[in-house]
Amino acid sequence: MRFKSLEMSNFMRYKGNNRIEFSCDDKKNVTIILGDNTVGKTTIAQAFRWCLYGALLTERGKKQEDYQLLNNDILAKMDANSRASVFIEIIAEDDRHVYQIRREVQYTRLYPKMIAKEFYKKVALYQSEKDDPDIKLEIQGDSEINELINELFPRNLSHYFLFDGERWSDATVDGVKENIKDSVHILTGLSAYQAAMKHLKDMGGNSVIRKFNDKIKGSGNIYDNLAEDRKQMERKIEKCEESVETAKINITHYETKCQEIENYLEENKNTEILQNKYKQCQVVRRTQEERKNSEYRALVQRFSEKAFMIFAEPMIEASLKMVKSVAGERRDIPHMHQASIDHIIKSGKCICGHSILPDSTEYQNLMEQKNYLPPADIGSLLGEFEHIGRNWKNTTSDTFDDMRESAQRVDDCLRAYEETCNQLSSIETQMNEQIDFKEKKNQLQHYRNEMKRHCNEKGELEGRIESYRKRIATIETDMRKQEAQSEENKKWRMRVEMAEQVYARMKKDFKEREREIFTELNQQIQNNFERMFNAKDKKIQLTEQYNIQMLYKTEIGGYREEKNLSEGEKIARNFAFIVTIMEYSRKKKAQKLMSDEIENDTLPIVLDGPFSKLGDENIRLIAKVLPEVSEQVIIFMLRKDWAYTGLDEYVGASYSIDKDADKSYASIRRTGGIS
């Protein structure tokens, strides 16, 4: 399948008609459209999507109705009575047919507001033979048109062959969750088996086998009742089989969930030990913090009460030296004052018991001693000061030692506290504090219980199916006795049995082919991932539903799935898938292995900003394989990134997107290729 051309009229950034003709050359199969940021590259990519599916690739948080299709410059010139239209026309071709797809919407303006109101829309599809292009067959009916478009360009795969590298997300077009298994079946030819099997047996009353059975007639009510019983059993089987498939999906889902948690717990088993250690350290830290604060308060209290003594010590020392230098020999009685002498004389008796009489020798000695006592004698005061100063100095020395010991205790407490804090920080770097192992284990038990419940349900349903089939076998034995009376019945019975055999063989072949294709795709997708991204510590694989998982190598060995991928990793993952699908489809087509099946074709690749989040080396590696795996490659990208691709020799057509600074719209200009 190739795109021949795309024509846009008044579509978003593009005013008037703009047309691009794509290279369909076998060797020069690359068309390049270059432009700067914000000039309209993505608009052209959106034109493909809108023309094919009637929907745009929306950004997160936006809806389809948030996007205005009509060019703003056209809308601004409209009045209340004006009409304007937007259309996209794509012409595509495969080996035998040419397809013309045209989608159009006409608008009025809700004047004076800058709002376009849709009043008419239409999608048209014309099919013609390549050998006779003048005769066109118009496909009638929107559902028939959409069905054929989806067959040609599977919508579930649109996120891959219409690849938006700059705005890639796991959301799909129009908010529809991606399920690409059926689309892969179309590309690989497996859908032919599915269609045939459905036609034979899986269409209920419209299936071939059911219609053949309805042709068999018996005699009387006995046969009719048997036939009705068989139909009831078949309906019950169909219902049970649907429930079995649902149970299988649920079992697979819960198995995956269990495996994820088991892997997670295994990888983080040391974290649980660390968590316990972390909690213990937290208790120690609280105790240490309380002790640290207590010792600090005691130090502050001592300092506030006695620090002045330490600061005064140098002055006391200097004063003592001064007193000693001027005091000379002391003649006073220590701790005595003049008032003490006066008291002794007044009492008439010395403290030793001798009487003190006026004019006596004792009296004279006391009066003489009085002259050496304060306040009359400064020497005595200095002596007293010296005594007090020395006592103060001794006390100060003890206070200093006490405060130094207290400060050391504070320092020791602080050091121990900081060591514990550092230990906690170290533990935090080794584990995720958000991990709740109890919650994880509860989840694991819940998933196991659910898986067991669905397994039991599946077993019960399969038992019912077996019972219903035995009942059908008994019924059919009785019916054949009735049918034996008619030769016509024998003919239809033979046809039923033949159809059943064909169905069984096709079902067996389908399972074998599906497994073969799945294994081949899974191996090839990993090979492509390795050669395009040189990834040594990661790999990708397909699930049974063809979802793509990226796995990272773990420290304990093996791999685990990484769900929180970067935009670059998502691009790498999906590039590997794109290349694999295109490569497989092209290879099978070349080998003509599916000539007897519904015709399938390769898809073109339309890439919008594919390399914006990749390094130069990855750009070169990816670009190298694109022309080899797809019959047609269409790339919208920045001018600055083109040099790294190395695709010049593959370019069959090139265009430039131009936009003047003073204009609100862009235009497309051919720069090379296609004569």
Describe this structure as you would to a colleague.
The protein has 675 residues and is α/β, with parallel strands linked by helices. Among the domains are: 223 residues, Rossmann fold (3-Layer(aba) Sandwich); 140 residues, no CATH class; 44 residues, no CATH class. Helix content is 56%, strand content 15%. The protein has 17 helices and 15 strands. It has a six-stranded antiparallel beta sheet, with helices on one face. Strands 8-12-13-3-14-15 form a six-stranded mixed beta sheet. Strands 9-10-11 form a three-stranded antiparallel beta sheet. Strand 1 and strand 2 form a beta hairpin. It is elongated. About 3% of the residues have low confidence.
Concise account of the structure shown:
This protein is α/β, with parallel strands linked by helices and 675 residues long. It is built from 17 helices and 15 strands. A 6-stranded antiparallel beta sheet has the order 2-1-4-5-6-7, covered by helices on one side.
